[in-house]
Amino acid sequence: MNILFDYTADLITKNSDFTKEQIFPNLETPTQDKGDVALPCFKFSKEMHLAPNVIAQNLAEHLTDENLLKIESVGGYLNFTFKPEFIAKTLMENLLINQADIDKKFGMQDKKVLIEHTSINPNASPHIGRARNALIGDSLVRVFKFLGWKTDVHYFVNDVGKQIAMLVYATKDKPNVTFEDLLQIYIDVNEESKTNPEIEKSVFELLHKFESGDSETISQFNKVVSICIKGQTAIFDELDIKWDKFDYESRYIHEHITDKVLDELKKSPKLFEDENGRLVLDQRGEDIGIDEPMLVVTRQDKTSLYALRDICYSIDKANSGADRNIIILGEDQKVYFQQISAAMRLLGAKPAEVVNYSFVLLPEGKMSTRQGRVVLLADFMKEAREKANAIVTEKRGESDIEKAQIIGYGALKYSILKCSPEKNVLFDWKNALNFNGDSSLYSQYNYARIQSILGKADCDYKNADYSLLTTNEEISLIKQLYNFTNMLCTTYKNLNPSFIANYVFNLTTKFSQFYSTQNILNLTDIELKKARLNLIAKTAIAIKNSLYLLGIDVLNQL
RNA sequence: GCGCCCAUAGCUCAACAGGAUAGAGCAACACCCUUCUAAGGUGAAGGUUGGGGGUUCGAGUCUCUCUGGGCGCACCA
């Protein structure tokens, strides 16, 4: 994968008794400026009965290569420094930064991935914690697409349940209710139901009628759910987050799929009826992080609970024919997901791969929709647009809504995606919309700088002599450019988009340092000018593609 | 109480599979625009990687334990 490692391993193998299998996995990139490739010799020490520094020293003395500038044995490490012209030429000629090239290289065009993400309760406007789910999911969709996979993005609509029934109850006398009204209505009816037990009773009546197929109730539910889904998807649509399919939970009841799966479960001795008449799956002995795992799948009257519907849905996804089946879930669902997975295995189905993410916390504590202590995604987006537009106005002298939107939403996505999913994110307005330094705007800005230079270029730089790129800044930039493929693979392997954000910031920093120390357009050396133009053109592609993977757009001009 | 995850500079985050002197950004300080976009760049400053033990030639990374935070622990979705 790493061409320099490959070259170094060959070099060592040719000049010593080591095999490539011994050398290659041990090679690493040295810290700071100790060289281009390093070989720690500690692991060979025991077997060879020699001190690591002796091994390194011996190797150093016997290695020669025309492309080698310097080889040093330092404290048990063997450090290789190659001639910069060799590094530049080798890496630039082997860059993989275009989707088309990557498609060809990895050959994953026949593969298909199913990704389920977001699947919020359709009861109100999403808050920024739920947005984390959508942003991670959408970024992973883009990563798979970029690698040539066919993607199938699903949203599980939980249209059966007490929250929806409560909204149906609370809006029955309000014919013109809008999506924006629903959050307050939901909070109010929750509050009211604490003191008025009649509400709870009516809500369960509604739910019962819905489940048993009463057509008027079904249409009432559909109306509320439809308002929610439309409202939610409109918000996500603005962030360019889309789904291929919305799967409705109620389908599993109304089409009696739950009954069929229940019949399958009944064949297992693990399913039993408890003293209250509910059907329960005994999951003791499964690797589930609680003492006595039991999964209750039906109510007393044998109608399905959510867990059973979820099992049905999960089986559908597992049987969809996708090569990989991925779901993004909040950390609160960890144990529950293990239970669903165990139930699936019992039925001979393969559980999804899960990406868990931790919650977004507010300075005053955790978010709670019911208590109204939330930062809504819609509000975050509005603030992002306005703050970005204020900056655009300040810099350019006039406001530009479209630009502000791209910049603002970029900052929003970047601030959430740059954190590793397993970590809690502390949200505060000051840090969340950062437009300086480690931010999306930093990369967008430098992208625009490059476009500006390329627009002024007066020569064809398609064919360039890369061996002319020998300054420290050029080599650093080239190395980071070459890392694009590695970053993509790491993200894919770990299902963690934060690697992309790290990468693009690093890449942009290298470019910025190059830009501020070296000239391009006013060079008299035409060949060097062409080489540098070619370098920055490729840098722009890598920045654009990295930002694309995060769901962030670029601008040719800021 | 039990289980899983997290703890790194004042704040927000990095550190590929255990490798060398733990890196950035923000904030604060000092510089750099008659040069391709200063929405930038440079410098200095900032750390006993939450505490303690263990494994290893080598630990922020693995392990044990304690502390603090997040999440969960059948009849919600």
How would you sum up the major sheet?
A: 5 strands, parallel
For the termini, the CA-CA separation is 36 Å
Helix fraction?
Answer: 40-55%
User: What structural class do the secondary elements suggest?
Assistant: alpha/beta
Question: How many strand units?
Answer: 14
Strand order, largest beta sheet: 6-5-4-10-11
Uncertain regions: pLDDT < 50 for 5+ in a row?
Answer: none
By DSSP (H or I, 4+ residues per run), the number of helices equals 23
The average pLDDT score comes to 94
Shape: globular
Q: Regarding CATH, which class of the domain at 377-549?
A: Mainly Alpha
**Strand portion:** 5-15%
CATH fold title of the domain at 377-549: Isoleucyl-tRNA Synthetase, Domain 1
CATH architecture grouping of the domain at 377-549: Orthogonal Bundle
The CATH homologous superfamily of the domain at 377-549 corresponds to Isoleucyl-tRNA Synthetase, Domain 1
Please describe what this structure looks like.
- The chain has 558 residues and is an alpha/beta fold.
- Among the domains are: 3-82, Arginyl tRNA synthetase N-terminal domain (Gyrase A, domain 2, 2-Layer Sandwich), CATH 3.30.1360; 159-242, no CATH class; 377-549, Isoleucyl-tRNA Synthetase, Domain 1, CATH 1.10.730.10.
- Helices cover 54% and strands 11% of the residues.
- The chain is built from 23 helices and 14 strands.
- It has helices at 3-14, 20-23, 42-48, 52-62, 84-93, 99-106, 128-146, 162-170, 179-195, 197-211, 215-238, 250-254, 257-266, 306-318, 334-346, 377-396, 401-417, 429-432, 440-456, 472-482, 484-494, 498-517, 526-549; strands at residues 37-40, 68-74, 77-82, 112-116, 150-157, 245-248, 271-273, 279-282, 294-296, 324-330, 353-357, 360-362, 365-366, 425-426.
- The strands form four sheets. Strands 6-5-4-10-11 form a five-stranded parallel β-sheet, sandwiched between helices. A three-stranded antiparallel β-sheet has the order 1-3-2.
- The protein is globular, with a radius of gyration of 29 Å.
- The two termini are 36 Å apart.
- 39% of the residues are buried.
- The mean pLDDT is 94.
- The chain binds one RNA strand of 77 nucleotides through helix 3, helix 8, strand 9, helix 14 and helix 15.
